[in-house]
Amino acid sequence: QVQLVESGGGLVQPGGSLRLSCAASGNFFRMNTMAWHRQAPGKQRELVATIASAGTTYYADSLKGRFTISRDDAKNTVYLQMNSLKPEDTAVYFCNGDLVIDTDGDYENYWGQGTQVTVSS
Fold it and tell me: How far is the C-alpha of 54 from the C-alpha of 36, rounded, in Å?
């Protein structure tokens, strides 16, 4: 059974930093495009950043310069480094991605259960 498990969330003061991790485990060949999303209370889930298998990245315009997505394929892990955090970054952060499940390159999309990030003094 394939799963994505996020970790690294918590309470941080404004201006602080956190690094989230998303570990993929189970029966799959490799990670394809991976992403982080977030959902603040009372708001729709929004895309934060994506990273392709070749390393190409995309960020939501409002987060450029503060957040960095990266990946370690040897560890089947994706990271989100968040700097200069603001109270409006408070949300549940979800890992999402396509995992290749066979030698033909077929993939399936998975979501993690989310990790809470709270930015408050």
Answer: 17
By three-state DSSP, how is residue 75 classified? Answer: coil
pLDDT tens per residue, range 28-82? 999 999 999 999 999 999 999 999 999 999 999 989 889 999 999 999 999 999 9
d(CA 20, CA 37): 12
- DSSP 8-state assignment for residue 43: S
Task: State the burial class of residue 31 (Cβ atoms within 10 Å of its Cβ: 0-12, 13-18, 19+).
Answer: buried
Q: Which residues share a beta bridge with 103?
A: none
User: Which residues are paired to 69 by β-bridges?
Assistant: 80
Extract the runs of DSSP E, i.e. beta strands, from the chain. Answer: 3-7, 10-12, 18-25, 30-39, 46-51, 57-59, 67-72, 77-82, 91-100, 107-111, 115-119
